[in-house]
Amino acid sequence: MKNEPNAGRLGRALPRGVTLVVAATLIAAFTVAAVSAQTTPPPDQFLTVGVIYVGTPPPPGTMFIVHAECGPPAGGPKTLDKNYTFTNVGPPFNTIGPNTGYSEKVKPGDLCSVTETETGGATSVSYQCGKGGDIQNPPPYLSSGRAVQFESTGPSTNITLLVINSFITPVTVPPTFSG
Description:
By secondary structure, the protein is mostly beta strands. The chain has 2 domains: 1-40; 45-167, Immunoglobulin-like. It contains 1 helix and 10 strands; from the N terminus they run αββββββββββ. It has one helix spanning 18-39, and strands spanning 45-55, 63-71, 80-88, 95-97, 102-106, 111-118, 124-131, 141-144, 147-149, 157-167. Strands 1, 2, 3, 4, 5, 6, 7, 8, 9 and 10 form a 10-stranded mixed sheet that branches. A hairpin with an 8-residue loop joins β2 (63-71) and β3. The N and C termini lie far apart (130 Å). Mean pLDDT is 74; it is low at 17-37.
């Protein structure tokens, strides 16, 4: 066998330039994969906050304020720290306006919580959390609670934290007279 500069491992001569093209292709493929992994942004995550009521509707114009905050579970700068004002707009929905709630982009891995700081005179307040949907087309609620942690990887996610205000329906008992 001749001493060929481009001889393959099995002793076959490769055409000039083939070794260089294969090596350059592999280097380019690894470079593209590494750059793609570094520049792919994380999926968008959205927190939607909404308020509804059950029972007797509060008077039109009744205000509710919900405070939402999101940030890394171990502490650090907050992604979201905001108050939202909701006003009862009345029928046709038992939604407190805006009817679609407020939606904010948050970071993957964020821990988010909501607290209603102005209840509009509700007799009780509860919270529910669901994945997807919006206030008029609510998702199946996964849990009762006012906090949720977003996944740090995976597809884009919309989580709805819903504040439910209960108003007792007044019961009128007619007076009875004896005698």
